[in-house]
Amino acid sequence: MTDPVGKLPSELDQLPDRDPEETAEWAASLDAVTKAAGPHRAAYLMRRSLQHAEGAGLALPKLLETDYVNTIPTAAEPAFDGDLEMESRITAWNRWNAAAMVTRGARYGVGGHIATFASAAWLYETGFNHFFRGKEGDGSGDQLYIQGHASPGIYARAFLDGRLNERQLDNFRQEAGGDGLPSYPHPRRLPWLWEFPTVSMGLGPLSAIYQARFNRYLANRSIKDTAGSHVWAFLGDGEMDEPESTAALALASREQLDNLTFVINCNLQRLDGPVRANFRVVQELEAQFRGAGWNVVKTLWGNAWDELFQLDTQGALLRRLREVPDAQFQTYATRDVAYIREHFFGAEPALVELAKLLTDAKIAECFYTSRGGHEARKVYAAYKAAVEHKGAPTVILAQTVKGYTLGKGFESKNANHQMKKLSVDEFKGMRELLGLPIPDSAFQDGLVPYGHPGADSAEVRYLQERRAALGGPAPARRLHASAPLPQPEERAFKALYKGSGKQEMATTMAFVRLVKDLMRDKETGKRWVPIVPDEARTFGMESLFPSAGIYSPLGQTYDPVDRDQLMYYKEAKDGQILNEGITEAGAMADFIAAATSYATHGETMIPFYIFYSMFGWQRTGDQMWQLADQLGKGFIVGATAGRTTLTGEGLQHADGHSHLIAATNPASLNYDPAFAYEVAVIVKDGLRRMYGPDAEDVFYYLTVYNEPKPQPAMPEGVEEGIVKGLYRFKEGTPATADAPRLQLLASGTAIHWALEAQELLAADWGVTADVWSATSWGELRRDALAADEALLRGEVQVPYVTQALSGAPGPVLAVSDWMRQVPDQISQWVEQDWSSLGTDGFGLSDTRDAARRHFGVDAPSIVVASLAQLAKRGEVPASAVKEARERYGL
What is the pTM of this model? Predict the structure, then answer.
């Protein structure tokens, strides 16, 4: 609805106007300026007024977009703290060796990326020379999230400072021999250099935000002083299309993470072509980050553009820069000056006149090479502004040319992401451009040489002195000398060993109760990091709220609505729980930061992340690989597990496959415990394996169930079987010596169906069944695969599952609340006849009993399947199978 003059209403219409006449005068003044000097002048005055108002402290909404110019003008740039000529030579050597390494590798077809580092070289070199703190100084140093495709440039720098040799560079992407370099930042493959895996696009920026947040968490909980640590995330403008890249921008702003800087290399190209072909990605990103509350620093143009801006007395150049789309800017970098004069400057008369004042050489310099991201002074100014800004994170939008210095065959070409080598002639042209003393004689048999000024050269000494002043080499991953965590007191585990008697308790609650007791441990209690994505009450964790507190850097600034209740919602600056809201990706990023704190900060933490099992591996499986790559440790807990346990939620919530996905991750130890005491034994063993004297780089995945059941006491001597994945829980008692017999293997909540089936088989059919608890199908398979590998080496090892079932009479029937493929993982190592039951297919909404009958995994279904297996062997009449189906209504 509009007002009488046809204008749309706004929020201002709701505010009282104390002086309408004065308001009308301001509006009339604006109209007069527009009429007399034009709309551009009027807009300029309005923006100047807003800028002045902001400086005066008036509370006004900020503009989301500024002109397409540098945030820091040349006149305001700080003094450059270094030898620019020396740093230019260092950068030239690194550019050369990065390109040489990938080109030499092309002989073997291993590929690599050249153009990304070529565009971003100064973004990295300026940081390494002036800002990135190493781990040999005070504190933990900075955390660097290197853009994956730029890794050749990082290797080239490590070669220059003596951390890598030519043989290693020649083994780029050739790791099978044991002395190669991984394609991208992979800590598990090169743990002394890489700290954070980033090439799975979008995960780097997301993890960087939560790493910066976790740094504050450690400080606010008085575990580690992280004031000296700054998080730097290097990203591509195309990478920002990934939803994870921008998913947590508001969190970073909300928690005022001024210990975080994003550096986005805006070369205006993604993998196949322009990022925003018909639009302007820099302006889009500026609006997005400003809207989220970030400090934005644009570093777009080099010094050559200063003359153009000074000549632009009418604002025509600024207007033109605002309207030219990315794809056109890319084209300008590849066309001749005549084309630029016609298509850029020919847009309006004022620009035509401006261009008459410019030489062809000046236009070529501006449009071909002069970008803010290619000039050390510009980058230095932006970085200095970022680290000095307080109260908000900073994003630096640095414009570059993709493939810069690689020659016309590479620069700004759509295909440059796929171009893996330069010709000898292209290298010679690059040599001349960079001014490197590499003679023609160094090119042997058409092979480009590596270049190095010498271990005692001025360049290497300068580089090493700079790094020494900043705290040592970077990037670098360091394992701090720290003692293993002491094992918690046994009483926390004993509470679950003894069972629950007649009281019913779900294994979800058993796990939460155990962790709550472990968090009270005097030695290790403070190191637990509970993480939950906004469903703590679903998992019975509300009792932790008042005791442990929910982490918030602001503390609690309000009176909680349930303050008068025992388990009220308590937030605290030193709170221990990370209650993330509805973001499994954010919670997983929390987990990764906590799970790797032992290396990042030398502070071992014990994270446990609990979630609906359906929304863990399926939704964030890529982050599970990131966790494994980063050598993280901790407990991931899939609650309300299984396909028939959470039936009211329907198809999308029914998890029958997370154990299959988890089985694909070599670092994940996957357990599906049936009883509370099994949970206790697994957690205890996990603490030993991950945090004990011989700590392993693994993490645990446990599935637990929100199905209350009486919890039995732990039988004697079952600990080893629980950890290895299988033990006999309840042996059947034969009615007669020749009674048919079989083995029922069950995991998780399915053991209760198996136990009921055991009774039905004995009572109704005279069949004896032994019931086994299969706590880990995955660990049984891992052990069996290791035995197979040993056999190839000439060593004879018998898989544990084969040993455990050796001599067990009758066939084996495995049952679980998972797809049949889950238990079928171990079938080839079972000597007995094998069959399985599972919940293949989609979930559905109904009662648990109805769902289990639907999938054919309830106790009567197990009975029928058991009889069918025995009938095949001739141990029961075939008619018994039909009779059982009819009796149980199947």
Answer: 0.95
